[in-house]
Design brief:
There is one protein chain. The protein contains 15 helices and seven strands. By secondary structure, it is mainly α. Helix 10 (244-291) packs antiparallel against helix 11 (295-304), helix 10 (244-291) runs antiparallel to helix 13 and helix 12 packs across helix 14 (346-367).
């Protein structure tokens, strides 16, 4: 028995010699260089062996990178980061909405329960599903939320999924679902059916907006006005044109009116203030002639002389044009308003300056007593020059550098 055991342990020398000879022959064969045309194998999978006789195949690294990178990029783009244009949902969002529909009985469901149900279709962790569901709920369109869902304006986060609840909104029930025309596919494990796209009746991609970073590209769609999307959808369904020109003209007209309101503010303030002061002086004229000027009367004079703003603006514009050798004799808000209304540049400035000059002369020579006119005119003239210099040389550069 001992001899038999020794025979089993110690190999035969003849057999060892034969194995070594076979190894040397194989090594000699492997040392031979096989010339393969790499062009014939571009675009083929790395593991594919095109040789029927089992010879080695040389595959370029560039081909491997091309195939594998495109596969990975396509998966991330289509299955994770970028929403589909058909329904406006990313896959995780679509699976959340599908799960909400399956769980829908009219009552609120714990978000944690919805997240767990969604994991039957989206096997990428509960955290990603919960975050995606909170983002949908914060847009206040498809999910009827209950509890602390955070605030996108303040940056406050939502409470944990076990504390907040959700159900489908009436808008979502009306717009998202129609099983008979839904394109169905199988889930990742083949156990359940899930929609490839939801038959959405409303442009949710534009209503909600979208943002995602994929491989080699990213997307960012800003949310659009809900009412304008409804108007556009109705026009499209009725076959009416909805060109960009119409929308552009609408926005341009709104911008025009906004700018006109800003421009017209200065002249309107001058006209109203000066007119109120002048009317009050007319009512006080008899008493002024009988009893003289009171403090309140001087206030009315100051208000009425706001009209001199129009006279000063026209005078300064004409003087500046003459000194600089230019032909643009009009400036200020009056000129800009005339340009916006497509009327001659001086059609507003000249009439307002004439009215302002007439009112100022009437106040000075018909209301202010003779013994105080010279003092009033001289003090007003010197005060105006002093204020002009004070603003342009001292206060102006400090307040509006």
């Amino acid at each position: 028995m001992k001899d038999e055991e020794d025979d089993n342990i110690i190999p035969n020398d003849d057999e060892n010699n034969q194995d070594e000879n076979q190894f040397d022959e194989n090594q000699d064969d492997s040392d031979e260089i096989i010339n393969v045309d790499a062009k014939n194998f571009e675009g083929q999978h790395f593991y594919e062996n095109q040789e029927e006789e089992g010879e080695d195949v040389i595959t370029k690294v560039t081909g491997m990178y091309k195939d594998w990178f495109l596969d990975y990029a396509s998966y991330v783009i289509l299955e994770r980061a970028v929403p589909a244009i058909e329904d406006g949902f990313k896959p995780v969002q679509r699976r959340i909405m599908h799960s909400l529909k399956e769980l829908d009985d009219g009552r609120y469901n714990k978000v944690a329960n919805v997240v767990g149900h969604t994991m039957q279709y989206h096997p990428h962790g509960d955290a990603s599903i919960g975050d995606a569901m909170v983002q949908i709920g914060q847009k206040d369109l498809l999910i009827d939320c209950q509890g602390n869902w955070g605030n996108i304006l303040t940056g406050d986060g939502a409470a944990a999924s076990r504390y907040i609840e959700a159900r489908l909104s009436k808008f979502a029930l009306e717009v998202l679902y129609s099983p008979k025309i839904t394109d169905w596919g199988v889930s990742y494990d083949g156990r359940r059916a899930e929609p490839n796209n939801l038959p959405v009746k409303f442009p949710l991609l534009l209503a909600q907006g979208a943002e995602g970073i994929a491989v080699g590209l990213s997307t960012k769609v800003l949310p659009h006005n809900f009412n304008e999307l409804i108007d556009a959808s109705i026009k499209i369904l009725k076959g009416k044109p909805f060109p960009e020109k119409e929308l552009h003209e609408k926005l341009t007209l709104k911008s025009f009116y906004d700018m006109l309101a800003v421009r017209i503010g200065g002249p309107v303030q001058t006209i109203l203030t000066g007119t109120i002061g002048f009317i009050l002086l007319l009512f006080r004229r008899k008493k002024i002639l009988e009893n003289g000027m009171k403090i309140l009367d001087w206030l009315y004079v100051f208000l009425s002389l706001f009209w001199l703003r129009e006279v000063c603006n026209l005078t300064m514009s004409v003087a500046s044009a003459l000194l600089n050798g230019k032909k643009n004799y009009f400036g200020g808000d009056e000129k800009n308003i005339a340009l916006m209304l497509e009327i001659p540049k001086g059609s507003i400035a000249i009439p307002l300056a004439i009215i302002g000059l007439c009112i100022a002369l009437f106040v000075i020579f018909k209301i202010i007593p003779k013994e105080k006119r010279l003092i009033f005119i001289s003090s007003g003239f010197l005060g105006g020059i002093a204020g002009f210099i004070l603003w342009l040389r001292i206060l102006g550069p400090i307040v509006m550098p």
